[in-house]
Amino acid sequence: MSRSRFPILFVTSSRIGDAVLTSGLIQRLVEEIPDASFTVVAGPLATPLFRDTPGLERLIPLEKEKRGMHWFKLWRQLRGRRWGLVVDFRGPLLGRLLSTKRRAIRKPNEVGAPPVHKVIEAARLG
Fold first, then answer.
1. Measured between alpha carbons, how far is 92 from 28 in angstroms, rounded to an integer?
2. DSSP per-residue string spanning the chain
3. 100 domain residue, yes or no
């Protein structure tokens, strides 16, 4: 009998540097959840960074569109699945609209608070 996979949606940055800084978290998830299957959403320039992710099921380059329509189109692609975990570095809306057992969503820095390095943000999500 085969084990069922644990579906993880990993939404990262469109900027290459920021996507690199979040890649440590996806590696941690690979190590801690051996039966994970990953759907990774990133900007078109950053998607190649995730091609060799163990357990990669789907890689979605997110092309920005006017009025945020790219988020609606992405939601339509992802909504039919029950996710085990949604990790979203882009913001709270998409992760809140999808069916999932657990969410790890980046929260915006509070006004007046000192800036937080992207690696620290990623560590706080994990």
1. 22
2. -PPPPEEEEEE--SSHHHHHHHHHHHHHHHHH-TTEEEEEEE-TTTGGGGTT-TTEEEEEE----GGGHHHHHHHHHHTTS-EEEEEESS-HHHHHHS-EEEEEEPPPPPTTSPP--HHHHHHHH-
3. yes
Domain-embedded: residue 1: no
pLDDT at residue 66, as a whole number:
86
pLDDT tens sequence across 26-85: 999 999 999 999 999 999 999 999 999 999 999 999 988 788 788 889 889 998 899 999
Backbone dihedral region for residue 58 (phi beyond 0: left; psi -120 to 50: alpha; all else: beta): beta
Threshold 0.85, pTM exceeds: no
Q: How confident is the model at residue 100 (pLDDT cuts 50, 70, 90)?
A: confident
Q: 36 lies in which domain range?
A: 6-125
* Single-letter amino acid code for the residue at 93: L
Question: How many structural domains comprise the chain?
Answer: 1
CATH code of the domain covering residue 21: 3.40.50.2000
